Amino acid sequence: MRFFGPTGSSERSKGEVHCRERGFDAIGRTRLKGLVFVAVMSGVLSPSTAHAFPLTGPWWGWPWWGTGRAISAEGDIATGYGDLASGMGRWADGTGNLLRRLAEAESIHTITMIRQNEYIDLSVRNAALRHQARLQLAQAKCNMARDAIYRRVRYTPNDHDIENGDALNALVRDLMGPKVHPSVMRSEVVRIPEKVTEQIPMQLPRMGVVIAPRRLRAEGEWPELLRAPALARGRRAYHQAVDAALTQGARGSLPTSVVVVVDRTIDELRVGCEAIAATAPPAEVANARGFLNRLSKSARMFHQPDSVTALAAILGHPPKSVAELVGLMRRHHLQFGAAESTAERELYQDLYPSLVQQSHLVVAHSPKPGLALAVDAKDAKQAPR
Questions:
Q1: Taking Cα atoms as reference points, which of 73, 20, 18, 62 lies closest to residue 38?
Q2: Where are the domains of the chain?
Q3: Quick one: pLDDT band at residue 190, thresholds 50, 70, 90?
C-alpha cells in the first residue's frame, strides 16, 4: 500500500539508505511513513515548529520519499537565525507598542494635570472672591453699626452715652474740628460749673491714665471695712500725702518723694485691710479691695510727666467756660472719662446741655452753617436725667 510519492527503485533505494544512515532500518516502511505523517502534521499545526520544515516538494519534500532538501546542520542554523530575527521583530513590535502606549499615557496624564491645575486655580479664585465678598459684607455691617452708634451718641444720646463720656466727647470733637475757629466760641461765652474739671475724670488716652483729683481725695467715700479704728492712722496719712501731692502738682512741680509717699500710704492701707479681712464679711472685703485698687489706679497720674502738666493746668487755671474747657482739652489731648460715682454722673448731666448750647451758637454765628458744624435739632433739648 502506497501513501506518499512515487515508488521508483532509485528513489526508494535512496530513502532506504538514508533511513539506514539515520538508524531507521529496523522500522518498516509503512510504519515509518505513518510516523512521518504524524510528525509533519504536528509541525504544521504547531506555530513554534512549522517554519522548521519547508514544504518544497510535491509531497512536502521529505528526502526519503520526495525531492526536497535533506535536514542538515546548516538548515538548523538558518532556522535558528530565523527564529532570532522573528523574535527581534516581535520585540521591536512590542517596544514600539509600548512606546506608543507610554506616549498616549503621558499625553493623557498631561491633559489631566492641566485640567486639575485649571480646576485648582478656578477653585482658589472663587474661594478668594467669596472671602472678599464676606469681608466686604462684614465691613459694610461694621460701617452701618458704627454710623448708627455715632448718630445715636451725637444726636440722641441716652443716659449711658452721657455718663460714660461718649456724648460729651462727640460734641467736643466737633467743636475742635478744623471748621470751627476758636474765636467763634470766644465770641459767645457759655459758662460751666466752677471747678468742674477737678471733679470730673479727664482721660489721657495715649498714657492710659485718668486725671481725677476728686477720686484721690476720697472724701466721704471710704468703705465700711476701711473705716475701722485700726486703719484711722493710715487714712490720715493717706489724706496728708494726697493733699501734698495735689498742692505740688498745681504748682507744676511734683517731686518723686511726694509720689512715693502716696504709693506707700496706699500699700499700708492694703496691708491693714488684709490684716482684718479674716474677721470681716466677704462682701465688705471685696468692696475694700476694689476701692484700694481704684485709688492705686488714680495715683498713676502722678507718675507721668504729661499727666502732671495737665493736672497743673486743671488745678492752677480751671476753665470757666466751654471755650476754655475745649482749649484745655485740645492743648493737653484730654478726653472725658467714664463716670464711676453718682456725683460724677450728675456733673456730666449738667455739663452736656452747656456743650449743646455752645454747638448751637457756633452754628448760628457761622457764615456757612452747613460747613461749620452739624448739629441736630434734638440737641436743643436738655439731656435726660
A1: 62
A2: 9-71
A3: confident
Distance, in Å, from the CA atom of 265 to the CA atom of 50, rounded to the nearest integer, reads 121
Residue 351 has a CB neighbour count (10 Å cut-off) of 22
Rounded CA gap, 167 and 351, in Å?
A: 11
pLDDT (mean) for 308-328: 89
pLDDT digits (tens, 9 = 90+) for 87-133: 888 898 889 899 999 999 999 999 999 999 999 999 999 999 999 99
* Phi, psi of 339, deg, nearest 5: -75, 140
User: Does an H or E element contain 42, and which?
Assistant: helix 29-45
Residue 355, Cβ neighbours under 10 Å: how many? 24
The Cα 372–Cα 159 span in angstroms is 27
CA dist 343 to 219, 349, 350, Å? 12, 10, 11
Cell 484711722, residue located = 232
pLDDT tens across 66-87, in order? 444 445 777 778 788 888 888 8
pLDDT at 335 (0 to 100):
93
Cβ–Cβ < 8 Å for 362, 180: yes
317-322, Cβ contacts within 8 angstroms, sequence gap of 24 or more: 318/194, 318/195, 318/196, 318/197, 318/198, 319/192, 319/197, 320/191, 320/192, 320/194, 321/189, 321/190, 321/191, 321/192, 322/175, 322/185, 322/189, 322/190, 322/192, 322/354, 322/355, 322/357, 322/358
Secondary structure class of 287 (helix, strand, coil): helix
pTM metric for this prediction = 0.61
AA letter at 101: R
Q: What are phi and psi of 125, to 5 degrees?
A: -65, -45
Collapse the DSSP code of 203 into the 3-class scheme (helix H, G, I; strand E, B; otherwise coil) and give the result: strand
β-pairing, 209-211 vs 202-204, is antiparallel
Could you tell me how far CA 73 lies from the centroid of its own chain? 86
